Amino acid sequence: MNLTKLINKKLNTKSNPQNETEAIQISMPFILKGAKRWCRNHFSYMDDFVMAGVEGALEAYKRFKGTEYEEKGYRYSSYSYMWIFAKQKEYAEKLWGYMNNTATIPDNWDGDEASSYEMNTDLLDVKKAFGQLSAQEQKLVQMKVEGHTFDEIAKQLGMKSLHHARNDYLKACKTLEQ
Predict the structure, then answer these.
(1) pTM for the full model?
(2) Could you tell me which of 91, 12, 94, 33 has the C-alpha nearest to residue 59?
(3) What local confidence, expressed as pLDDT, does residue 54 receive?
(4) Which tops the pLDDT comparison, 90 or 99?
(5) Is 95 within 8 Å of 54 (Cβ atoms)?
(6) Alpha helices in 42-161 (DSSP H)
(7) Cβ contacts of 36-41, under 8 Å, gap ≥ 24
(8) Which of 78, 24, 82 minimizes the C-alpha distance to 51?
(9) Which whole number is the average pLDDT over 116-140?
(10) What's the mean pLDDT in 143-149?
């Protein structure tokens, strides 16, 4: 059945579906709302999120028949929402993993693509500002980045209390932001 026909056809969502087509029709408002939420500014993926939602609706339909939820009088639409959300979330995680590829550089990489990368000038500005901090402020920021607590930093740098370490750290961060 055509997707636009499924979207435009009005169906009683208070009843449970008799077949897979009705299950999709009942779930379509949830599917579209979820797809819009997951896509936000990337509408080129809207169809993929709708299809993931349809998969969730079909999975819910297969699992809903004869379960304790149906026997207790739950509506299919309430049950399917959970499956639609799960399938769309699964697709989003797969998509984001693909888009934000953080794989390491292979050992045999010869660096030919390096000429296509641009230099991050913001990072240079931060390094320059970091160099303008005093030696103690540099050590304090470095220790905090490494995961030390303010109490540990205060003891190691000979400060009066963790509050002094925290205040000095905040001042150093403001200097780096400017």
Answers:
(1) 0.48
(2) 91
(3) 92
(4) 90
(5) no
(6) 46-64, 68-72, 76-99, 121-132, 135-146, 150-157
(7) 38/88, 38/89, 38/91, 38/92
(8) 24
(9) 71
(10) 84
